[in-house]
Design a protein that fits this description.
Length: 251
């Protein structure tokens, strides 16, 4: 039995490996999944980064909120010729982000700390256990990390802009015939409205990962249909799976 949802846009780059839980959903429900980012990320050049007067070598711990943050942190470390010491500590908002560190370092539990829910406030108890560290928070030029929450730790935390987000505009002949849109940041919502200023949601379902993206949907006057993480669905594919299963059951 098919479901009402036929075509989903996932606002992320297409997986290089050809494997993704989104493809599993496509097979399970007989739907089409299209990977099409609404935004593009550009890393700051080392020269631009140095204008912030931040010395990466001054920090003993890093707060990682995304894979993009990890990629650009290690890229700038290399470009500024800073060799990351084995003693560096990493505080990550999700298990997936923590695991992604293995791309750059040998994973050692004694120096990698992670929250379980994806919420930055869940890092507070972990940070409070290490009050003497000097923390660096890699971020975009429009970072949405709740600094008020982190400031409550009274830890020494410095935000460093390491990359910027720009709109990945749709071409005039590019079809926009999706039944569901999946977003991962407020920038994606901004790009949607920039590309389609007269956008009417209607029956189009919108799903978001993370509180900041979810808030952006509501602030834009749109309807949020699917949210993650939740106790029942820690990831966006899991949340979509629950939604489609319920939709199928109702038919």
């Amino acid at each position: 039995m098919t479901v009402n949802t036929k075509k989903i846009l996932v606002s992320q780059p297409k997986p290089a490996s050809g494997k993704s839980p989104y493809y599993d959903l496509a097979e399970k429900y007989g739907i089409e999944v299209v990977f099409r980012p609404f935004i593009k990320v550009e890393g700051l050049a080392a020269k631009e980064f140095r204008q912030q007067k931040i010395n990466i070598a001054d920090f003993t711990a890093v707060i990682m909120t995304s894979r993009t943050a990890i990629d650009n942190y290690f890229r700038l470390c290399e470009e500024t010729r800073f060799s990351v010491p084995d003693t560096m500590k990493y505080f990550c908002t999700t298990e997936q982000i923590a695991n992604y560190l293995q791309k750059y370092i040998v994973y050692r539990k004694r120096k990698i700390f992670r929250a379980l829910t994806g919420h930055v406030e869940d890092l507070v108890p972990l940070i409070n256990k290490h009050p003497k560290e000097k923390y660096l928070l890699p971020a975009s030029d429009v970072h949405q990390t709740n600094m008020a929450v982190l400031e409550a730790t009274k830890a020494d935390i410095t935000t460093a802009t390491m990359y910027r987000t720009i709109s990945n505009d749709f071409g005039p002949d590019e079809a926009f015939d999706y039944d569901m849109l999946i977003f991962f940041s407020p920038s994606g919502i901004e790009s949607l409205l920039k590309n389609f200023p007269d956008f009417k949601q209607g029956d189009i379902k919108i799903g978001c990962l993370g509180e900041s993206a979810q808030k952006a949907v509501i602030d834009a006057g749109l309807r949020l249909d699917i949210a993650a993480p939740t106790p029942a669905a820690q990831s966006m594919p899991a949340a979509i799976d629950l939604y489609l299963a319920a939709q199928k059951k109702r038919k």
